Protein 1
Amino acid sequence: MTGRNRWLSAYATIVYLFLFAPIIILIIFSFNSSEFSFGWEGFTLDWYPVLFSNDALIDAVSVTMRLALVTVIGSTIIGTLLGLALARLRFRGKGATETLLLLPMVTPEIIMGLSLLIFFFTLFGGRGSFGQLTLAHITFCISYVAIIVRARAVSMDPHLEEAARDLGASAVGAFRFVTLPLIAPAVWAGALLAFALSFDDYVVTTFNAGVGSSTLPLFIYGKIRFGITPEINAISTIIVAVTAVVILVAWRVGSFREDADVHVVAEEEPAT
Amino acid sequence: MNERHDGSSIDLEKQLVRYMIQRRLTRRDMLELIGKVGAAAALAPVIAACTSAAGSAAPTNAPTAGQTAGQSPAAAASASASAAASGAPAATPVPQPESELRIYNWTEYLSEDAIPSFKEMINATYGVDINVKTDYFGNLDEAYAKIGNDGGGFDVTFPTGVDVPALLAKGAIVELNKSLIPNIGNLGAEWSDPGYDPGNAHSVPYMWWTTGIAYDRDRIDENLTSSTSLWDPRFAKHIGMLDDWQEVFGMTLIQLGINANTTDTAEIDQAYNRLAEQRPLVRVWDTNTRRMMTSGDVWIGQIWGADLYRIQKRVKKARYYIPEEGGVKGSDTMVVLSGSEHPVAANLFINHMLDAHVAAENTNYIYYMGPNAAAKEFILPEILEDPTLNPDQELVARLQELLDLGPAVRDEYLKRWHQLGR
Amino acid sequence: MTVRPTQPPSIVRRTLSGIALLPGIVWLAMFFIVPLAMMFVVSLGSRGPADSLILDRPSLDNYARALDPVFLPTFWNSIRYSVATTLLCLVIGYPIAYWISRHGGRNKTLLLIIVMLPFWTSYLIRTYAWMTILSDYGVVNSILEALGLTSEPIILLNTDFSVILGMTYGFLPFAILPLYVSIDRLDPALVPAARDLYASGRAAFLHVTLPLTMPGIIAASILTFIPALGDFVTPDLLGGPESTTIAKIIQELFLQGRDWPYGAALGFLVMVVTLGGTLLALGPLRREVAGT
């Protein structure tokens, strides 16, 4: 057993290195004294102060963050409910609902972006705005959350909730204290994915952003023609660094530490 | 009564009607406005007389001596108003800029001072604290889709010259209000009547460039002159082309001795066959020419001339040439969008960009050459002397312009572009 | 073996469950189906002069045009890239999801978040970083040369290899997350129990772990394959002339061709094929996926 553990741990290290390889390069080049973010020239810290005085860039980051936050909240709530319902219920039109779930993922981004543009413009005279972006982003994130939650909820024993009710819990209470904790990892996973999807979205955002709601991806892509400077690397580095610090702090404080014992008790499957 | 003091006559009614349309005023609004303006106009000579010393001096801080280096329409108007202070009839209403301006542009395509100086100018001249918002696009075709038929909520944008006719046909852009753009006189003669927009009626050129070929002299130790070098099998898998069907086909057609804007499908087929020969040799199609040429993967590539300067910072021995068979020139332009809610500010902005100092700043920042003749004296000498950034006029005159070919012909090109695997 | 859920008898529970479904369905109907229907109407129209839209003479002409065999090579590109990416993501992702679940202990969630961390940077910069790594004079080639393994750069960038590498990288979290969620559900006592019953390590994995984590594997496949099919940017940036995907063609028809009806028709066609294929593949796996 120990031998296998060692191999597995070594493997895990390699995978994490793979995941972070481009990030390490990205961070290194944020100190590049060349004005390109590729082709190392020399070390400099100059790009960091430059970016702090770049109001347009800071604005773009702010819009992106707020958008991602709202998107995560909206899509996680809706997606979780959807995923749960699909996992637990039998109802007419279930197949259709499942297909509905797959549709946004199957749709080419240009079609989704432009169809939303047409939709908002024709029906509401909308020309793009933060609100429009929120609606668009939540729309394409729901499926991802729902599918992940469903995968988890499907292997959850429904009797557990009934057992809780039998023991006097209300329907809402059973949901809160039995179901929710059991699907919690899936909800978190969905939220993480939704954040990444929204944060980095370009095509749908291009057609649904309006005046004053340009996001970071729009800002960055807009620089392709005249050269992406290491400033962009710097902002990405800062975002990663801040996120890492926040996570570390939360972890120290104990929010992530799972209490192993309680978990096992709740997960025990009765004999089937 | 409709004559300005300096003798030029304006049709006040026409201006008022146009103003109404641009501002979407109803007749009732207009009557109200006239009442206010009339009152102001009556007082204007008095106010102008008091402030003429301060007012007309501020905008014109460039060397005077009759040069139109930094004129704004307000200065012209207030100058005539103060001159008419001695009891002449009501001065013309000076259009006030709105309080907001929405620009849709590439990221940081203007110098860092462009917008701040514009805001200062508006504040000093009109006392309006204007709010300028910029939003970004990374791709012109996406921008055109976004602005649709009326501008997508923006006031000013920067399309390429080629696309101006199509935008006009769609109804997305409007005629410029030249009375607000006196600086248009700063444009070099060769830009005052471009093929895509006669008389600069709807657009003003912003930056221009040539399309040619760059190569690393270190890896290719020869003096290349022809575009056939991009087909040289010795450079297989180290050749790069622009990811732009019109540029790629254009260069190929010119190489074959055909007009770059041909509509003849047989000729387009010739170009296609030539490109099919090239395909196995091409490493990448990319519009990020700086990345393409500095990574070392590409030794010879089709680029926009102005990019060479930045490429040379990494690839010291990079050279650029316009193919001996002929080349292409292009430009970015500034236009006012039809759905703009701030047309006065939009036109004033364009005028400000044409100011010699501002234009020079922009050029010095982006390292692209501008069409502004008056700006030349403020442009960095290294740009002016660089034959790639600033080729001599003879050469430029011989270059072809890529034109809008219309949907049907475009389809023919794109069909073959798809067949090339693009 | 999945558990069959019981049908809740009480009206109260039904209503509550209905409430769970409602927001999602209403939302998707309003902000997805309706816009998509509008785009469908566009696909029935035609492009007029000045790139305008003519909608008053609906026809299926664009669909007929879209069935052009010239699109097959690019469609095939999309399929083979997505299949390769999905398989690699599953193969690479499963062990790491397993490791996080079994050996993460108290730090499981932290380890999972660390997996996601790289994806909170800009996609473009990450991809440029990969270009720097794979380029002829980039990290990999420099190392190979330094070690004396090569004398000339190996062309890694702008090839199928770089495309699949980039796509796998990009979609790895899409696989790891659902896999983890499913693996984490497993009772840790099951595998030792199987071993007690004389199953080999391999048999225990194949007959206990794998089937029980099937919902996760299917979810991971869906979440990888389908978006990968629509990813045109990665093949565009990391690929060469032969890497064009159907998603890029659709994009071009809209933006460069300015022929929205045609682009929409091709897009819908590709969607139907993709959806049909997915549902067909999922059919026999109904029970694992839906639990019914």
Protein 2
Amino acid sequence: MKMQLIQPFISAADSILAHALDGPTKIGDLSMEEDGYRPKGFSAQIAIRGEIEGRVILDMDSVTAARVAGALAGYEIDESEQVVRETLCELANMMIGNAVTLLNDRGYQFKVHPPEVHRSEELVRGTADTEALAIYFDTPCGRVFVNISMHYNVSHRPERDAILR
Amino acid sequence: MKPFTPLTRKQDSQPVRYLIVDDSVFARKSLAKMIDTFGGDVAGEAGDGCTAITEYARTKPDIVLMDITMPQMEGIEAVERIVRQHPDARIVMVSSVGYQDNILAALQKGARHFVQKPVKPEVLYEIIRYVLNDDEAVAAPAGVGEARS
């Protein structure tokens, strides 16, 4: 696990949540997970492929998701799945977009796949060689979980080394 | 969202007209709300670059707010095509992805400015004022148009 690949996502999540929800956020405990991740309800999963690879999961329970959707929309929203999905997708896009901007400007080349939103509590398995960092943010709307698993793609190492030289 | 001094077109004192291009319905609604607080009108919306081109020709907006990553045709290609057909088009890129390469590409294709999501209303307001320039738009005197917000 390379913290230089993880930190941009933590910073972006903190900044986007505080800005979008217009209130203070508090970063909770960090932990490392090797056995996969079990989402809390609504989750947006984003895959990254290229010189650096991995996936990021933005996750929250349905009550928090509805509150977040309401905060972003500026009016109260019930747990209507489509609106909540749309909101979660946009929140994930903003978070990932801000993080990958930093990584891209550092010279990494990769592709970010569109978020896939799931409403499930089924285990998301990690890959054999990658552990994930799990973190949560206490926000005015409730607890938001972020699970990040990133690594260098060894097949791109020569290009990466050339960039760093 | 706080109201802003309404921006109007200098030539006819009418509200500035916007075309919003974003594949996210949520993002379009959010931008439309901001435009309302700026005293503007939403002339049209599009969810991809292809639709943006036809909507631009149909609505002839004063400002286009254009996302970059979209299905079918991405924002940067749409900018190039719109500017080729309408050299005076004023397009502001609005994207969560702010790579230097992306920003440069958009500006080279004819976009006038770039703002990264999440968009702060006060930042977007100042960018729109800048892009429209004082020749095209003026902030109406305080009190004018406040009923809109």
Protein 3
Amino acid sequence: MSRANTNKIKVVTKDRLEEDATVTTTKNIDWANYETFKYTLTGACTFSDIGLPSEGSKVISIYMTGDFAPTYPTGWDVNVTGVYDGTVNNLLVCEYVKSGTAFYKLEISQPD
Amino acid sequence: MKAITTTLELKNSNPDWFKSYAIGSIAKISGAYTTNGLPKYFNSLTYNSGRRTDAYHKLSNAIHEADGFYDIVTPSFDQATEKLGALYFDVDKFTYPIVVKTQEEQDAYTQQQEDNDNASTFFGQRKSDGEIYLDRFNAYVYRQAVNNEITKAQAIAGLEFFYDALHPLKMGYFELSVNKLTALSGNAQLTTLKNKLITELQNYLDNE
């Protein structure tokens, strides 16, 4: 029996949550340390990715509200459905796929 | 309301918004996900260039103008003799040139105003009401014949008797009908009907 490659096994216990109730100006989205984010915009904000997976793929969920303008990280706009509406709660589900040519898939919805 | 001059860069960055506009043309963005001519999502050329911004309309006017979105200002003009030309950009706004109307256009405008003034509305209502009265009268006479309360010959005689007097109602000339009815003389049955008609038409005029 061959030994399993533990580097490629995703161990799921619970999703890690980052909360920030005063998001404004700039904000890093930490893909390496969180899966779920809860943000409240208090001003226009420019988001950036950090800790993107170097291989495979990952899905994150961002719950966000606040009637201000978010600017998404580079590449998020290529495959996107929905539009952010800061007057209500929004759910942004973003998948990053590190294939030959890495790409994102972003879905924005207002679940309430 | 805002407008923006279409450029190649804008078309490439925002195909959703500019696909129906040629380069150099003035775009007035409208529809879902817009407000006051501003898109609710946009890839700005000057604000976080190359990235998508949602709630773009919430950004400052300075950013909108840096991207090329400027207010559309409609100049005041005399609609009787002037009209607006094609939208163009003028320093810090989009606006329209004022063009003098041709004589034909001025005449058409005057006629349109007259068609819509109070007098036209008044006579339009008169005409409509007069046609209703005439239809009711005709239906009343035919109903009596159908119900065998009068003969068909009597019905036709009655219609003929009142025809000239009631015909002005088609034009809304209630007063003329009243005068013509008053001048009619016929048998007792027709006179009763005549007086009933005069009373109804006079009531209409009194309550007008």
